[in-house]
Write a structure and sequence with these properties.
single chain; alpha/beta; Spore Coat Polysaccharide Biosynthesis Protein SpsA, Chain A; 2 domains; 7-stranded mixed sheet; two-stranded antiparallel ribbon; 14 helices; 9 strands; about 55% helix
Length: about 425
């Protein structure tokens, strides 16, 4: 009875919140804006509604960010120094119920051009199927350990770091297909360029409609990151990531949170660690195959954003330079608020259709399609994906999802979340 009541409250709050955001968008969109120009021989007054300004500003913002992303993705991989022989590197693969996809990461890492590499698969104690699959892959390069801090990816990484003698580490998800040059370039960035962290890019394989939607969502997020990175903040993660032991220990490792990688990124920024972004090194990951999995996975990620913000506000995720802590907090707030603002933006764009101003409605839609299609073209040229047209057509559909998922995640985190981890079913292709 209590659970049903919580669900009803969450659903009503979510629907009501979405309605409020839509009404705000409609109200703001109708507000008039006036530009008056008065010269000796000329008096001119231009009147337009806020919805048009919102369309133009968003289009300009996304085109600039998208072009920056496209430039980075299209760059030759050799812009990063390659180190094929050097210090010992431990590649960590934390796994849970990943027996069907584990071969993707292990087999691709076996092909890496970096020589001095060990691959460690960190399994959960009760996950017998994955343990058996991992043990069958073990050899002189690949070993298997049991998570000494079961129940979290952060604990699995910590287990391997504590047991390893290496001073350089890389972390990957089980379903990643890793670029052959990624580790050699990551070690070049760490030991030649002297960076603390090296970060590549992961993209979902757009094999179907839902999978393509997931790909488009990643494109829009990476585009938004580009402008944020001008402030010095980089989204270093717990996959497709190479880091030094010193960097790991400086920030206290990964925290036992839903999005331990987001917390890691904020801690790296607060402690002024240097992060080398290289989105032209691309790993493929398996995308959600159903709308339910797409919604559940994205909701988990957004709920993780709320959890990291909560941990920061309550003082359990602190440290680093004071000014950077404030900027980090502002980054969290604007990220969460920006996701919900997209519902307001969509309402304003719909208003333009009703008012027969379809040209202004189409501007952000076309901009989104062009950026997503351009990035898809670069990925297709590199041989990572096949389709381009469908990606351009589906890309604008991700915006209404952002705000809806963010609002639902905030409500669920505050009212009913019990710490459970949403797990996406993977086919293992």
């Amino acid at each position: 009875m209590k659970q049903r009541l919580q669900t009803a409250v969450e659903t009503a709050g979510w629907a009501g919140g979405c309605l409020v955001l839509v009404l705000i968008g409609l109200y703001q969109g109708l507000q008039q804006q006036i530009l008056s120009v008065r010269l000796l021989w000329l008096s001119l007054e231009v009147v337009w509604i806020d919805a048009i300004s919102a369309s133009l500003l968003f289009t300009a913002f996304f085109l600039v960010a998208g072009l920056l992303l496209l430039y980075e993705v299209s760059k030759r991989a050799t812009t990063v120094p390659v180190l094929e022989e050097g210090p010992e590197l431990t590649a960590i693969i934390p796994v849970y119920r990943d027996e069907t996809v584990l071969h993707r990461s292990v087999e691709s890492l076996r092909k890496t051009s970096y020589e001095n590499l060990e691959i460690v698969i960190a399994c959960e104690p009760a996950d017998e199927a994955t343990i058996q699959r991992a043990t069958a892959m073990a050899d002189e390069t690949v070993s298997v350990v049991t998570n000494a801090y079961p129940g979290s990816k952060a604990g699995a990484i910590r287990t391997v770091v504590e047991r390893s003698a290496a001073d350089s580490f890389a972390v990957f998800d089980a379903d990643e297909i890793v670029d052959e040059e990624f580790l050699a370039s990551g070690m070049g960035a760490l030991h030649t360029e002297r960076y603390d962290v090296f970060q590549g890019r992961r993209i979902p394989e757009p094999t179907g409609i839902v999978e393509t939607l997931a790909y488009c969502e990643r494109v829009t997020f990476h585009a938004s990151y580009k402008l944020v990175e001008l402030t010095g903040f980089h989204n270093c993660r717990s996959s497709s990531t190479v880091f030094t032991r010193e960097a790991y220990e400086t920030v206290g490792g990964y925290d036992d949170l839903l999005t331990e990688d987001l917390a890691f990124a904020h801690k790296c920024y607060r402690h002024e660690l240097s992060v080398r972004q290289a989105r032209n090194y691309t790993s493929l990951m398996e995308a959600p195959h159903t709308l339910a999995d797409f919604w559940g996975q994205r909701k988990r990620w957004r709920m993780g954003q709320v959890e990291v913000l909560h941990a920061t506000l309550t003082g359990t995720l602190t440290g680093g330079k004071r000014l950077r802590r404030y900027i980090s907090l502002w980054r969290m707030l604007t990220s969460i608020g920006g996701s919900m603002f997209l519902v307001v933006l969509v309402a304003k764009l719909c208003l333009l259709v009703v008012l027969d101003a379809a040209v202004f409605y189409l501007l952000p839609v076309v901009a989104t399609a062009l950026v997503a299609g351009g990035v898809a073209w670069a990925d297709a040229r590199a041989g990572d994906i096949d389709g381009v047209v469908r990606i351009g057509l589906l890309a604008p559909l991700v915006y209404p999802v952002f705000g809806a998922v963010m609002l639902k995640s905030i409500l669920e985190y505050g009212l009913s979340w019990d710490g459970a981890w949403y797990h996406v079913e993977k086919a293992g292709g």
